[in-house]
Automatic annotation (TrEMBL):
Stated name of the protein: L Chain L, Neuronal Synaptic Fusion Complex
PANTHER family: SYNAPTOSOMAL ASSOCIATED PROTEIN (PTHR19305), SYNAPTOSOMAL-ASSOCIATED PROTEIN-RELATED (PTHR19305:SF14)
InterPro entries membership: T_SNARE_dom (IPR000727)
Highest taxon listed in the record's lineage: Eukaryota
Length: 58
């Protein structure tokens, strides 16, 4: 409100934090996409196993 140096510094810091949070959001979205892809791949591998429902007695 008073546009003094402290407020300017706080605004700059808030902008920096906002940028970092945005980067984290994008990283989280990329990680989610990669995990979904890997889960689908694991499911395909599991479904290709012979006798996948068979329980072996030891």
């Amino acid at each position: 409100i008073t546009n003094d140096a402290r407020e300017d510094e706080m605004d700059e810091n808030l902008q920096a934090v906002s940028g970092i949070v945005g980067n984290l959001r994008h990283m989280a979205m990329d990680m989610s996409t990669e995990i979904d892809s890997q889960n689908r791949q694991v499911d395909r591998i599991v479904n290709k196993r012979p006798n996948r429902n068979k329980v072996e007695d030891f």
